[in-house]
Amino acid sequence: SFFREGCLSPISPEAWPLVQSFICHNRTFILDGHVQLKTSLQTQERHLFLFTDILVVAKSKSHSHFKLKCQARLCEMWTAFCTEEVCEGSTDPERSFVLGWPTTNCVANFRSAEQKETWLSFLQSRIREEKEKDNPKRIPVTIIAKDVGTCVYSKTLSVTNVDTANDVILMALQQLGINGSEKDYKLWVISGREHAPYPLIGHEYPFGIKMSHIRDAMPHGSKHCACPRQLQESFLTEQLPQELQCQFVLKPSQVAVCQQLNDLSQKSFKRKRSIINWAFWRGPGTHLDNAPLSTTSAAPGKLFGLLLTTICEDDNLPKPLL
């Protein structure tokens, strides 16, 4: 039996072309519904389709026709409630929660509290069940510590499929012998899929993020499987094409950085740098210049292809960046 809500079309969703394209012998349609997905200042009207092992996000063209926008494996997804860290402006907590997959966080805003609770319950249940199928349930994840002291450290941790980013931060700090808590540091993902490093909030699953890259490197036909039968050792030791690699970088959080800057500001400098020069300056030994996924290949002195003097007023960075 299927649970479904909010469909205006008299045609059963199981008969819709998009749904039909995903149904197969080991995949069942469960639920569909309209949602607003919010990220930062952006709000998008979308339609969600929940299957036993994947979530499909689509844009409605009519009552029964949809354009596929993205799909995510449930075993690589997460939910949370830190809506204020994902989107700007107020969000009704009775109708919203954070929904994420590698490497995306967005606020899912539903039409009613009942609809939100239904989706949250189904998603959390299905995510748990799909994670139970994970094999292996523990993989090696290498953490690179940057801007921590005067050296760049690297440590490989054994991470399970239920360890959050905050859990991994604490493990890395302990292994590296660094004092501090998960509030003092951020775990960043450098992915061949993305144009820039992505900071994790803390609730995400690094296991799922790395496994999503591994599964995408699997031969066609097995890449969408939640539990591939064979995982070559090379996949687990970072031997992936550059566009399918991901790295995890541990860096001080913004609060810690601000404190460091305040401490530095108490000292005298022979040469002062503006906040713009500081933010875009690449000092020797402080960055991973030789990292295989270096994101510093863009033209120096530019941001999104624009001159800094064009987007900065009175020597200040734009407010969204700050």
Automatic annotation (TrEMBL):
It holds the Pfam family RA. GO terms for molecular function: GTPase activator activity. Residues 137-255 form the Ras-associating domain. It comes from the Eukaryota. One of its GO terms (biological process) is signal transduction. PROSITE patterns: RA. SUPFAM superfamilies: PH domain-like (SSF50729), Ubiquitin-like (SSF54236). InterPro entries: ARHGAP20_PH, ARHGAP20_RA, PH-like_dom_sf, RA_dom, Ubiquitin-like_domsf. This is Rho GTPase-activating protein 20. It comes from Manacus vitellinus (golden-collared manakin). The lineage of its organism: Eukaryota, Metazoa, Chordata, Craniata, Vertebrata.
